Amino acid sequence: MTSSPLSPHPDRPADASHPAQTADASHQARTADGGHATPPADANRPAHLVHTAAALRDLPRSTGVRAVVMTMGALHEGHATLVRAARRRVGREGQVVVTVFVNPLQFGAGEDLDRYPRTLDADIELAAAAGADVVFAPSVDEVYPGGEPQIRIAAGPMGTLLEGASRPGHFDGVLTVVAKLLHLTAPDLAFYGQKDAQQLAVITRMAADLNFPVEIVGVPTVREDDGLALSSRNRYLSGPERCTALALSAALFAARDRLAAEEALRVRAASVGHHPAPDRAAALAALGEDRAAADAHAVAYAAAGALHGPAVARAAARAVLDDAARLDPPLTLDYLALVDPSDFTEVPDAYEGEAILAVAAKVGSTRLIDNIRLVFGAGRPEATAAHQGGATTEAADTGDTGNTADAADAATSATAPPAPPSPSAPSVTSTPPATPPTTPQGPLGATR
Q1: H-only helix segments in 186-276
Q2: In Å, how far are 315, 375, 388 from 415, measured between CA atoms?
Q3: DSSP codes, 14-68
Q4: Are 173 and 103 in contact (CB under 8 A)?
Q5: Among the options 18, 79, 170, 387, which is catalytic?
Q6: Is the CB of residue 321 less than 8 Å from the CB of residue 368?
Q7: pLDDT tens for residues 378-405?
Q8: What strand order describes the sheet that includes 134-136?
Q9: Would residue 170 show up in a list of annotated catalytic residues for this protein?
Q10: The model's pTM
């Protein structure tokens, strides 16, 4: 169960920590719709509770496929979204198993295993309501007979970056328990949340590299109405802390919008052509632009190749985070990284293709993570579509409802000068996405 390890604060659920999907993982993990579709007619029946692998094997197994959703308990709407996605995928003939296991291997120094929230009765009710057939809640002795395993699965270089750097050995513990639970539950499909992208990436890579006979399915991040990624940790934020915490999603959305604006400018620059400045203004006026002169400057800037997607995205996100660092209470940034989904290494400014913009920060004593998927490529239709909210994973993650015209308008003032504008602090809390997207918490359903 890939839930996140505990935070250094024993009274708080651990940060299920795992950023978004990895690079190699991205080609294998599929996105499932995380919406609230109508559950099966029998979704409200009680789920079977079993505590041993033997009891799980003895349960009648339908002729359909089996899906597993791994959690560390303390379930919330993010986990329910995972269960619903699994239920829709397997259909009435399939079986959905939810595991509830607080994995001791994921807890590091200062992370109090005994204080991790345990709410099994409520977890069973939520899982059953979302469409689960079985809740498998094994003891530590059942999963690790004889004590901690002497042989573990190593996450490799990918497991030492970002979240892995903050919590050395964390992903080794994640992969070890995921491998064991996959063996114990024997599923055809395993569902994990894209909010913990790095966790999803290392799990997907493990399944591919070690030939696990299971399909790894990524489910988009679930967000609250104000844009904050859903997490059991959000409950520990005070009112002022929550306002500051909104800077995480605001930074990601700012990067997405700046990138969309850049793409729109490039398209406009291509349509106007490389005319002398006066002719360019006239050409723009002919396109129906009232502010032709200002637009001409911005388009000329784009046509000259001064804009670079990754650099623009990083700068836009960092501007929001820098502002948040000056708020009261302040946001303390752990990392802001734009990474290749295949190995979670930083992408260069000239990079084209899919990338993950990931952020981790603390507000007060609460550590939060978030991420968004971006597509880079000058003037590429698919890149523009991805940033405008189509049927893509990233659109679901961000709740993007923008359009090309809006992006182009924003581009005129946002990209003419070399440095991107700095969003004001109030904008961090006052501009939530129009529609809450969908991505359940950490794969192992850890309480994020």
Answers
A1: 197-209, 239-272
A2: 12, 18, 18
A3: ------S--HHHHHHPEE---S-PPPPTTTTSPPEEE-SHHHHHHS---SS-EEE
A4: yes
A5: 79
A6: no
A7: 444 443 333 333 333 333 333 332 333 3
A8: 30-31, 215-219, 189-193, 66-71, 95-100, 134-136, 48-50
A9: no
A10: 0.70
